[in-house]
Design goal:
- By secondary structure, the chain is of the alpha/beta class.
- The chain has two domains: 116 residues, no CATH class; 97 residues, 2-Layer Sandwich (Zincin-like).
- The protein has six helices and twelve strands.
- Strands 1-2-4-3-7-9-8 form a seven-stranded mixed β-sheet, with helices on one face. A three-stranded mixed β-sheet has the order 10-12-11, covered by helices on one side. A two-stranded antiparallel ribbon has the order 5-6.
- Helix 3 crosses helix 4, helix 4 packs across helix 5 and helix 4 packs across helix 6.
Length: 226
């Protein structure tokens, strides 16, 4: 359990003044750095650790700190299932690969000491992993429910499309759909399933979409607004 009192300190790194919080934790075994969702640097210290040790640790990791604080300024919102989520990165010395845990609206990312991967890229990697599970399973479920025959489902990183359907019955979806709520995701899946019967955007196509998704116009508008 972390001590609720977090002291605010400052330090100079490469002629830049950086403010940081020191948080004492009974569970912490080692010093660790993390950048919270407000783009603030936090230093978690084990009980009995002195502030001087924290300052030395920060100076040692100054390059990493400045790089990641700067990168966070240009990042987009972290969204999942239509809601903004909190993301925390924990910088640890004794792990060799990234570890990501999501629970109750909090995405915790544990990064190894020498990692150069930006936080937003790690978030998107997790989003893609989630998409492979959820979008694949949900597409199969809706195809069975509405009697569509599909062959292959692929999760991609398209820049201009949310989904596509080939003449061979193969469907592909943009993993960033996971940023939207389930209704919007269902609309995109239904949209591509309907292309299996109507490979166009004719009046007949939209009538078919409406058969399975009554409020598709509203959901389509929400998709376009982001």
């Amino acid at each position: 359990m972390k001590d609720p009192a977090a002291a605010i300190n400052q330090i100079t790194l490469q002629e830049k003044t950086i403010f940081y919080k020191t948080i004492y934790s009974r569970k912490a075994k080692y010093l660790r750095l993390q950048i919270n969702n407000k783009n603030e640097l936090e230093v978690v210290l084990p009980r009995g650790c002195q502030l001087k040790q924290a300052e030395d640790f920060i100076q040692k990791k100054s390059r990493w700190i400045l790089k990641h604080l700067s990168a966070r300024k240009s990042e987009s919102k972290f969204l999942f299932s239509g809601k903004e989520i909190q993301v925390k990165e924990y910088y640890q010395l004794f792990i060799k690969k990234h570890k990501i845990i999501f629970k109750d609206g909090l995405l915790e990312i544990y990064s190894p000491e020498n990692s150069t991967v930006l936080l937003y890229d790690l978030y998107e990697a997790w989003l893609k992993h989630s998409a492979k599970k959820y979008l694949t399973a949900r597409t199969i479920q809706l195809a069975r429910e509405f009697n569509f025959n599909i062959k292959k489902i692929t999760i991609r990183s398209q820049k201009t499309r949310w989904g596509s359907c080939s003449s061979r019955g193969n469907l592909s979806f943009n993993f960033r759909l996971m940023r939207f709520g389930k209704e919007v995701i269902d609309y995109v899946i239904i949209h591509e399933l309907c292309h299996l019967k109507q490979m166009n955007h004719s009046k007949q196509f939209w009538q078919l979409v409406e058969t399975y998704c009554k409020n598709y116009k509203q959901l389509r508008k929400e998709l376009k607004e982001r």
